[in-house]
Amino acid sequence: MLTAWAVPGLGEIAPGADLPALIAAAAATAGTPLADGDVVVVASKIVSKAEGRLVTAADREDAITAEAVRVVASRPRKDGGLTRIVQTTHGFVMAAAGVDGSNVPAGHVLLLPVDPDGSARSLAEGLRAATGSRVGVVVTDTFGRPWRNGQTDLAIGAAYVDVTDDHRGTPDAQGRTLEVSVTALVDELAAAADLVKGKVRGLPVAVVRGLDAVTDEVGTGVRALVRDAEHDMFRWGSDEAYARGFDAGLAAAAHAEEEAP
């Protein structure tokens, strides 16, 4: 049986906060102390706050530009602004580079952790030291998805937990060998935890218990899920891909005309 619950009582997180100590204490006070095999799922927002990623920004759009390495797609909004899907310095493809302007002081924005896998490792090792329990950590943020309306939480950092569940090479119920079935386990953990954390209840940490996924080694982290450019079939938005193809066609035609005898 798989169980999941939110950890209450954390309160507002200040820069420099000892998150492992706060989470361990809050879980114990709530009567649900951490135990061996638990996966602690933590919203990136409180990780960023503890790591001092709250920065002054007169313009959120400038902050998004600074956090992006390329624009995948952009579309005008009804309010006159621009929605931008970008690739972040971490390799994630997401709206607004994860730059968050909600629930922060005016004139400030909150950036994603610099190294989410490193943040997860620090959290996991701190929690293990504080509780004596063999736990794993997943750090999450909210993403939209191609082809689907609505958002869901996905993992952006992980440590001491299996990132994937690889079924390749095993037989299915009919005896046929599976060739492409690799479950993004930490993303499923992120989504499951979000059901009990919610978006507006002020519960940024959840515990998932009953899944045999915690490891003795730190593991590959979420970086193993980031698809490289060579294998990315959806590298550009539809309008952007069309424009690039059109420009390439014009260039090829011009070159052919120059080469013609």
From TrEMBL:
One Gene Ontology term of the molecular function aspect: coenzyme F420-0:L-glutamate ligase activity
Alphabetized UniProt keyword annotations: GTP-binding, Ligase, Magnesium, Manganese, Metal-binding, Nucleotide-binding, Potassium
Top-level taxon of origin: Bacteria
EC number(s) recorded for this UniProt protein: 6.3.2.31
Gene3D superfamilies, per database record: CofE-like
NCBIfam families hit by this protein: F420_cofE
Name of the protein in question: Coenzyme F420-0:L-glutamate ligase
